[in-house]
């Protein structure tokens, strides 16, 4: 699977990071649509469980969407429906919106970034959390207007899940996600059944590694409480990514529909601080638009003693999982480098599947070809209203369209009987193809309406200058 990006090169990148003093130990793996293809570790047993920290947020979002799909909550419900004791005196203005579930999901509820504080709150009891919320929370921006990474927001979503499901947050995640997917090495405390044991976290102190005690679980488990293995997290990420393949979308998973998994992996809220390429938050996941045809989904995890990262390409079906057991080790940087190198290698790139055209699109192509032949022959043939929407004639009168086609055909020396190109498309309702002439060719583009019986709404004919 790794083409010319060899397994040795992947392993070397992680070993080099460790050699620079990033962490005592690490584990990593590369996966594709078929599953985990390579995994390796240093300083720990195979299939050891690390704390995955904020990668947990993807599980929180998936559990919440499963409740939404059952009608137990709405994404646009105000948060006060589930946390009536939340003191909102800290809202920026009298006209501020009450934060909604969706705002919390997309990190746009107006709460400030809170990593150092929130990382130490996991073991908070429900009663203590209630006290925090009753005392009030401060907002730095109007809810629903901008991105800011908020752990407190996801802790509130953990409470939303409990109220909507009538069960503890951790039990909801276990019953709805971990157990059905067979993620046996994943759990919320050190009793998780990982065959390689639980890895201890460390931080640097006085030139050596200082072990850190485990915390939790508690009211903040929804922000980052899970432990997991490379194999389990690769299975989780692969299951999310499979929603974009026909096999994954059609599979009867039962845990969460393919539509909801795709919803998680959309860029719902732009991160205004990023400039390299559009980047933002979906539901429990970051989404980066590398190019018009390349999206990468990811999440990092940082907790006292641990650093984690998961990353995958939706179009190419390849991804990376990486863990290290040190505070702020930045394993995400290595994982990103590995993933980018994999995506840059043609040998491992599975070509993005061409869109499956609607039958009506092919029917329209044949009708347009006949229409263009009639126009080229001198007749101002009318449009069949069953095949063309009203706007086509309204946007440009038929006489003008026919005259323009005759001029273009004359300019390329007339049409030949040669086979037309197969065409290309950006979706089922769209098609571009070429008609060959003696001294050039015509570019023809159509786009169909979203009606139950689709008709041509766009008809563009021009000389293909690039093909002359």
UniProtKB/TrEMBL annotation:
One Pfam family cited in the UniProt record for this chain: Beta-lactamase
Cited InterPro entries: Beta-lactam-related (IPR001466), Beta-lactam/transpept-like (IPR012338), Diverse_Enzym_Activities (IPR050789)
Domain (Beta-lactamase-related): residue spans on this chain: 10-332
Name of protein: Beta-lactamase-related domain-containing protein
Species for this entry: Microterricola viridarii
């Amino acid at each position: 699977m790794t083409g010319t990006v060899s397994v040795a090169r992947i392993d070397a990148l992680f070993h080099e990071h460790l050699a620079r003093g990033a962490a005592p130990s690490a584990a990593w793996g590369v996966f594709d649509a078929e599953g985990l293809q390579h995994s390796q570790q240093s300083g720990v047993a195979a299939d050891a469980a690390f704390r995955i920290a904020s990668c947990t947020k993807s599980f929180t979002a998936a559990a919440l969407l499963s409740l939404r799909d059952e009608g137990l909550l709405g994404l646009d419900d105000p948060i006060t429906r589930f946390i009536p004791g939340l003191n909102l005196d800290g809202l920026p203005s009298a006209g501020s919106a009450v934060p909604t579930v969706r705002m919390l999901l997309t990190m746009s509820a107006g709460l400030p970034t809170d990593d150092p504080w929130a990382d130490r709150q996991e073991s908070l009891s429900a009663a203590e959390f209630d006290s925090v919320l009753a005392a009030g929370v401060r907002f730095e921006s109007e809810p629903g207007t901008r991105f800011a990474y908020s752990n407190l927001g996801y802790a509130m979503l953990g409470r939303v899940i409990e109220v909507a499901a009538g069960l503890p947050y951790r039990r909801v995640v276990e019953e709805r996600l971990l157990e059905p997917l067979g993620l046996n090495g994943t759990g919320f405390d050190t009793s998780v059944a990982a065959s390689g044991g639980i890895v201890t976290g460390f931080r640097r102190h006085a030139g050596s590694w200082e072990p850190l005690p485990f915390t939790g679980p508690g009211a903040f488990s929804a922000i980052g409480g899970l432990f997991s293995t490379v194999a389990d997290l690769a299975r989780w990420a692969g299951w999310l990514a499979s929603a974009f393949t026909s096999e994954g979308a059609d599979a009867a998973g039962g845990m969460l529909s393919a539509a909801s998994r795709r919803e998680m992996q959309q860029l719902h809220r732009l991160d205004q601080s990023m400039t390299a390429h559009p980047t933002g938050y979906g539901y429990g996941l970051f989404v980066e638009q590398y190019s018009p045809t390349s999206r990468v989904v990811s999440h990092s995890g940082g907790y006292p003693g641990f650093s984690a990262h998961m990353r995958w390409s939706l179009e190419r079906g390849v991804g990376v999982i990486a863990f290290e057991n040190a505070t702020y080790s930045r394993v995400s940087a290595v994982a990103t480098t590995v993933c980018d190198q994999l995506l840059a290698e043609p040998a491992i790139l599975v070509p993005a599947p061409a869109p499956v055209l609607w039958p009506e699109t092919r029917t329209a192509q044949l009708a347009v070809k006949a229409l263009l032949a009639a126009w080229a022959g001198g007749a101002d043939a009318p449009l069949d209203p069953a095949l063309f929407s009203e706007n086509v004639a309204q946007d440009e009168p038929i006489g003008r369209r026919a005259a323009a086609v005759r001029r273009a055909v004359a300019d390329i020396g007339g049409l030949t009987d040669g086979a037309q190109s197969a065409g290309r498309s950006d979706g089922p309702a769209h098609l571009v193809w070429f008609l060959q002439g003696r001294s050039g060719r015509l570019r023809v583009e159509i786009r169909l309406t979203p009606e139950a019986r689709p008709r041509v709404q766009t008809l563009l004919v021009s000389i293909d200058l690039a093909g002359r």
